[in-house]
Design goal:
With 299 residues, the protein is mainly β. The chain is built from no helices and 25 strands. The radius of gyration is 21 Å and the shape is globular. The two termini are 34 Å apart.
Length: 299
Amino acid sequence: MKKLTLIAACLCFGFSYAATSTLMLGLHWNKLYTWRYWQFENGISREKMTILNEDAADVTLQFVLAKVIDDGLHVTTTVDTPPTIVGGPWKIPAHDYLTVDVPVLNKCNSPNYLFRVYKDSLKDYCLTQISTPKPDSIILKGIFQTTDGVNGSGGNSPYRWWEHKSLFLKGGKRSSVTLVLESLAKEQPFVLVLKWPDSLLGGRQSLICLKTDGRGLKIDSTSSIDFAYKKVIGNARVTGFSYTLQQKNDSNKIEKYYPINFLVQAPTVKRPTMMFLSVSYFSMIGNGGDFSLPLIVVP
């Protein structure tokens, strides 16, 4: 993600400049999570956002339109004085969640504009894009389609997305979700379902992957080795399940997308908690990336 270097505070020609810091796009507050997705509603596709507050105190968020200024050396953002609030303020109670419509600003949907998302005041803010990519498919009724990671942290492509029937999963229960991947190359892709140690997640457990299969694909069982992927990060070891995906037919036709199903189970929780299914995907020549699915696990 691109770093944004924000210059010292001043007032000039009706614009206020942000305080000195270096930020990336995405929201980085502790115990506060936002999740953007597309949903078919009232005959049209809409971008929605669910906000989960895991803190013991209420939180208020609001969106302000910001213009990006790039002078070749620094990237800064400016806002009107007073700021133009285009979404909110929304109050999210402690240990609770709220779903809102993402403000629609078609004329500003370009790299020249961003949202400043302010928390509790017009001082503490992070930056996020105006709109996340719409999936390269029909937005299905009753299906949520996610192209962006939690807090704007990943994904961000119209050619790979998650499909799921609910934003929530009751603790101890199971649910099926689908990752739709663009055909990466003629070489067969493989998928790694990662299990991160709780120590790397602040003690937070992750969703448990019980089963994987692909619509229109077959899994090469000879390479489906439990805990085949291991990587040491500091003193913590990442483990997971490795799957090689192959087309069922032997023709040279390359499918445009690979839909991959996951059966997941949530651990029990005492209050609403954001949890993730962590997935990496690659072709044999190295193309790919990471794209995790967040779900809110409820008691």
